[in-house]
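Consider the record:
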Amino acid sequence: MAITSAVSLLSLPFPFMVESVPAPFWFVEFFKVVGFVLHLVPQGIWFAGLPILILCALYNGKHSRYFSIRLSKQLPVMMALGINFGIVPLLFLQTTYYKSFYTATVLTAWYWIAVIPILLVGYYSLYIAAYSGSHSGINGQGRRILFSILAAVCLTCIGALIVNGLSLMVRSDLWTDFAAKTSFHGAVLGTANNMSDPAFLMRLLTMFGLALMTAGTWIAFDGHYLVRKNSEGVPENYRQWSATLAVLVTLSGCAVLTYTECAVKSSGHAILTTAYPYFGFVVLGAYAVFLLFLLAKTVSPVFVAAAALLQFLTLAGFGIIRQIGQNNGIKPLVDVANLPAAVQWDTLIAFVVLFLLGTGVIVWMTVQCIKCSRNPAQECSL
């Protein structure tokens, strides 16, 4: 009887929550997508960048060693940016999608809690790797590889745990079954596992494919615009080497995204087709980025800037498509587009002002690094 009562609550509105949201629907959707896309940029650099860094460090050639050291020093900053930008979509996810979000996170509670200690280990591992020895230090290189591997494992686990919870948000058909299987005398234990969902692997592969595209873009952008010209310690022809690596990495990203698209289309599974509407446009954007990098390798670094802009637009397109898929998946439970709004303009205005100020500071810092990279006499590091 207790189990039945607890399970039935999962399909109903939370009794202590009012059926209204504190912001207009367009506001929620806009900043949820913007925050998600801004989060994807640094997230992609560390998610795919760490395996690339490890391979380059193991190869230990002149160019690859320089790259692995340089990227390892950038990753703690990227991690901080990714975490802070990730707060924005999470904020609006809890605000408007609370019924499905809190139900999914209660069912998978221990997986969500595990994210925090794993994140701490991964974060400190990045710092240890970043400051482990010099260019030629064998012991430092070994520590860099070891702690980079540890960080990569931690961050991959975090990605899997988050996808486990978020993929369950749109599977209201599974909630009662999971609650019945993971409860003790009516109390949900928070040990539900949604990793057998067909969308779980597809979402992880999609994020990794996009991460490869972003990491490849960063490698070329950093090599062409942030590495100081004629600076001591920079290997000869490093720009050409970074452009070649970017071509290989982005081609790998295109392959992963193509596989994802083909697997989704061929499966015919309703959950997958709902979660991936119009995904072919993202794949086309990825291939366009790859072609620009081919041109950048043989013609002009201007194509690197064009590829970086196009990659950002591709991520933005994915963010919009993903949001459409999430809304479609959650619609059987609640139509978020038609929820009544009790708008709190004072809070919204404060949020927008602080968001713009924070983003402006990050843009200013990036511009300063670009300016500094063009002046070899001035010390500069990202």
About this structure: The radius of gyration is 22 Å. The first strand starts at residue 183 and ends at 184. The CA atoms of residues 37 and 316 lie 6 Å apart.
